[in-house]
Amino acid sequence: MEEQNHIASAFDRDLEKVQAQIMKMGGLVEDSIRLAAKSLESRDEPLAEKVRAGDKAIDLLESQINEDAARVIALRAPAAVDLRMVLSVIKISGNLERIGDYAKNMAKRTGVLAQMPPVNDSAGAIRRMARLAEEMLKDALDAYIRRDADLAADVIARDEDLDQMYNALFREFLTFMLEDPRNITACMHLHFIAKNVERMGDHCTSMAEQVVYLVTGTHPDEARPKADETSINTQV
Q1: If you write DSSP's letter for every residue of 179-235 in order, what string do you get?
Q2: Which of 79, 80, 207, 236 is most buried by a 10 A CB count?
Q3: Rounded-to-integer distance, Cα 36 and Cα 24, Å
Q4: Buried b / exposed e across 90-109, counting CB within 10 Å, b at 16+?
C-alpha cells in the first residue's frame, strides 16, 4: 500500500511539472498572437521579427513536454484515467505549437504588407479576430487546469463567432479586389492571415474538446459548430 502511494505521489509530481510547462507554453503562444496582430496593425516590422524568433522557444517547449510525457508513461505505467491525463498533455501541446506557427505566419507577412498601402481597416479587423482567438486560448487553458467542462463548452461555442468574423472579412476582401485590382496582392496576404487566425480557433476548440473528454470520459455529443462559408483551400 505504501509503495502504491509513493508511485501515485510521484506520478502527481510528474504530471504537475508537465502541466506547468503547458501553461508556460500557453503564455508564450498568447503573447505571440497578441504581438503578431499588433505588429500587423502598427506595421511594426521589428515586433514581427520578435514574434518569428520567439517561435523557437515554443517549439522547444513542445519537444520537452512530449519527452517528459513519454517518460511518465514509461516509468509510472499509469492506469487508464491517469494515462488519459498524460495523453491530453501531448495533444494540447501539439495544438499550442500549431497556433504558434499560425502567429509566426502572420508575422511573416507583416513585412510584405508594410510596403503596401493599407486596405481599409482590415488590419484592425484581423486584430479583433486575434483578440477573440487569444481569449479562446486563455479560457481553453484555464478549463484544462481547472477541469472545467462548462468553460470548455463555451470555448467550443465561440469558434462559430470567429468563423463568422472570418467570413465577413473574406467577403470584404473579395469586394476590395473587384473594386480595384491594385488591392489584389495585399488582400491575398490579408486573407491568408485571417485564415490563420480562424485556424487558431479550430485548435483552441480541439483543446477544449480534449478537456471535455478528460473530465467526462466522452467526446462532446454535438458536432462542432462551423460557420466557415468559404470553399477555397487556403492551407498554409
Answers
A1: H-GGGHHHHHHHHHHHHHHHHHHHHHHHHHHHHHHHHHSS--SSPPP----------
A2: 207
A3: 18
A4: bbbbbbbbbbbbbbbbbbbb
